[in-house]
Amino acid sequence: MARILAVDDSAAMRQMVGITLTGAGHQVSQANDGCEALEIAEKQKFDLVITDVNMPNMDGITLVRELRSRASYKYVPLLVLTTEATAERKQQGKAAGATGWLVKPFNPERLLATVAKVLG
Amino acid sequence: MTIDLTQFHDAFFEESFEALDSMEAALLKLDIGAPDSELINTIFRVAHSIKGGSATFGFADIASFTHSLETLLDELRSGGMQVTLSISDLLLKSVDVMRAMLRSVQAKQPLDAQRVSDLQFDLELIIAQKNAAAATTHTVMPAAIAHLAASSAPASCAAAAASPPAELASASSAAATGAAAAKSAQRRWEISFRPYRELFARGNDPLRMMRELTELGELDVNVDLSGLPSFAELDPQACYLAWTVGLTGDVSEESIRQVFEWAEGDCDLVVRLLDAPVAVPATVRASEPEPTSAANPVVADAILSASAPPQETKADLAVPAHAAAPALSVVKQDSKADAPLSALGDSGSIRVSVEKIDELMNTVGELVITQAMLSQLGAAMEGPNAEKLRAGLAQLERNTRELQESVMRVRMLPISFVFSRFPRMVRDLAQRLNKQIDLKLTGEQTELDKTVLEKIGDPLVHLVRNSIDHGIESPEVRVAAGKSPAGTVHLDACHRGGNIAVEVSDDGGGLDKDRILAKARARGLVGPTDVLTDDQIHDLIFVPGFSTADKTTDLSGRGVGMDVVRRNVKELGGKIELRSERGRGSRFIITLPLTLAIVDGQSVAVGTETYIIPLISIVESMRLKEASISRLSGRNEVFSFRGDYLPIIRLHELFGVEPRARALHEGLVVIAEGDGRRVGLFVDDLLGQQQVVIKSLEANYGHVEGVSGATILGDGSVALILDVTGIIHAASLRAAA
């Protein structure tokens, strides 16, 4: 069981990620955007953060950069959910400090496999 | 574990509809000349979210359409294209089409696919035209033209073009593996993996990759410890090790590289086929950067675009990181720009079904009744602790009332939910009618009950349409009359007493009283010699089938409408008034109760029964003098009230109750108004005014003419709430019979 923070401005996506991962025995917290995620992540420690890119207030790339700059998240896997699997987008994520990415659309099975891979 | 994706559909539909509303609102605010970049960002984000969601939840058509839309929006966002009126129209139409698509999948009904594909074609055309123009004005390199053409191609092509490196990578490995697969399934690979020290600092872990490799085939792992420093210098969070892995199995190069996909840029990776399959020179176009040269880093794979030189060396590795830096600062600006828009999105709210709230309302209603019962008991209590008990009961009463009000507030929504549809409607109508109209919205935050809110939308739409169609004059006429060419339609909502007042006013031509009167006379609605007050003339437009429009348009003027508007408002327990001045404009004022769940009522006694008359229907109450009563033919009784003769309806007769007062001067009459008519309701006595919780009679029993519901009184008895309009109808039917 891992503690996972799922960040997406879409409630439907959050639900899908949340229910899928909870069903797999993880403990999932949710945040609406980067700002909220940062707030939650500062109060609580997570083993994995999965974030959407395109969000109001603070986008996922900025969130990754912010988290990575904090000592407590320096080595925590940070996954980015992205619709554009372009090299540019991936590079942007990497440069911010993302561990890896999951390309949308994905199904729950892919999500679980990826999370299992990250958590080992 | 399998997960049923349909369980997320409701949430997806709901948020998509909301997102489309905010997209529409943003589009309407968009200034054609100088569009606000924040607004364009909002619009882009909505399209992007819907695209992602619809693709995830299996709505491919919506995803494809939104992709085209997103491409156009991206051009607008990056400043590659300007927002013109026709583009803004196209975007608004796209909102409509996306709504229609969502509705059709939600209702599982077929969709007008032609409409979708037509619009999608328009969207793609506009981008293609822009790109074609760019290609001809600048004399660009042929390769760049090809690139532009590719990115302007319709949805599917554009998607493919969006990820050229991935395509290249898979194409090359596919070519290599394709040749190999024909030969033999088992192959031996040598993988040299040299992570940089900071690998861990991205949350990556070599162990994970090794574990994944074991799933691909037989491993033969050699660790290179040469990078390991002395213990004193060792940083436990840096990666010093390197590996050379022999892998035997039916594995493609692509799947090996996928294992290390996330470590791109954080390592040197070489993947080499040891026992190469029989080479077929013609097909091996994939072998241009021959993987045998160990110096060639794999990172290039991801960064390698068609234009990049094939001879990437380790020195170039710094380039992508630097190149990314300016892009990142742009992102930062974006996120800053997003901040003020937060009001559009999250407001720290949760969704609760209406049923749950109704349940809560009901329980609170019961609590109010129990509390009233206890208060009555407490008032009669005597003894040493009676005062303490009463103090406690008074506290309970306050708490109960606060609780009731809080629960009531949960059902309240700002009227902006209804007002928000008007900017679009007014814009479209004004365009169609060639009129200039400014829409002014005020009091949007005024809250009212959800049920009332849902039902007030249509009447308001009708009134606004009327104002635009009949009220506001054409610009020429307005200028000739010394007005500004643009007319104003003003929607306002505010609290007035215990009610909500919603006003629709315009500065148009106002009602033509002479024409209304002439028409009413022609129709025989008004006698040729009758003299009518202004109010009475205005009232005529609410008569069913009455219209003075010179020409009927498809909007209004067919005589259906104003009567329906009034009926709808009445059904909500409200009333509508009209004030108008020729040449200056009209003003419709709708007064509505705050909620349908409780009513301010006057309790009246008839025999042993108690009835509640809604205060909004009551004009006044009085004791009749014998002199003011007249008896017409048969049993019809009337009395004079401010110069009018009003019929008397005896409630005890209506409900078959044995009264205490039979003679009219022994009881009281409550003068009540319904459907524009006044009557005197004869009752034994007035008991008091109170707010009562309405219980539906129809849900629990059945419809009773003249009764709108029931409530439970403090002593536990049931009182019927009277529907004055229904009573007047029933009485006039009986009188006619």
Characterization of this structure:
- The complex is a heterodimer of chains A (120) and B (737).
- By secondary structure, chain A is α/β, with parallel strands linked by helices.
- Chain A has helices at 11-23, 34-43, 60-68, 87-96, 108-119, and strands spanning 3-7, 27-31, 48-52, 78-82, 100-103.
- In chain A, strands 2-1-3-4-5 form a five-stranded parallel beta sheet, sandwiched between helices.
- The radius of gyration of chain A is 13 Å and the shape is globular.
- Chain B is α+β, with helices and mostly antiparallel strands and 737 residues long.
- Chain B folds into five domains: 5-162, HPT domain (Four Helix Bundle (Hemerythrin (Met), subunit A)), CATH 1.20.120; 165-310, no CATH class; 354-411; 414-593, Heat Shock Protein 90 (2-Layer Sandwich); 598-736, OB fold (Dihydrolipoamide Acetyltransferase, E2P).
- In chain B, a hairpin with a 2-residue loop joins strand 18 (668-674) and strand 19.
- Mean pLDDT of chain B is 77; it is low at 138-183, 278-346 and 550-560.
Helices and strands in order:
The complex is a heterodimer of chains A (120) and B (737).
Chain A: E1 3-7, H1 11-23, E2 27-31, H2 34-43, E3 48-52, H3 60-68, E4 78-82, H4 87-96, E5 100-103, H5 108-119
Helix pairs in contact in A: 2-3, 3-4
Chain B: H1 9-29, H2 37-56, H3 60-78, H4 85-106, H5 113-137, H6 142-152, H7 155-161, H8 164-183, E1 187-195, H9 206-214, E2 218-224, E3 242-249, H10 253-259, E4 267-273, H11 300-303, H12 318-338, H13 354-380, H14 386-410, E5 412-414, H15 416-419, H16 422-433, E6 437-442, E7 447-449, H17 450-471, H18 475-480, E8 487-496, E9 499-506, H19 513-522, H20 534-540, H21 562-571, E10 575-581, E11 585-593, E12 598-606, E13 609-614, E14 618-622, E15 629-631, E16 637-641, E17 644-650, H22 651-655, E18 668-674, E19 677-683, E20 685-693, H23 697-700, E21 707-712, E22 718-722, H24 724-736
Parallel strand pairs in B: 6-8, 13-22, 17-19
Antiparallel strand pairs in B: 1-3, 1-4, 2-3, 5-7, 8-9, 9-11, 10-11, 12-13, 12-20, 14-18, 15-16, 16-17, 18-19, 21-22
Helix pairs in contact in B: 1-2, 1-4, 2-3, 3-4, 3-5, 4-5, 5-6, 6-7, 13-14, 16-17, 17-21, 19-20
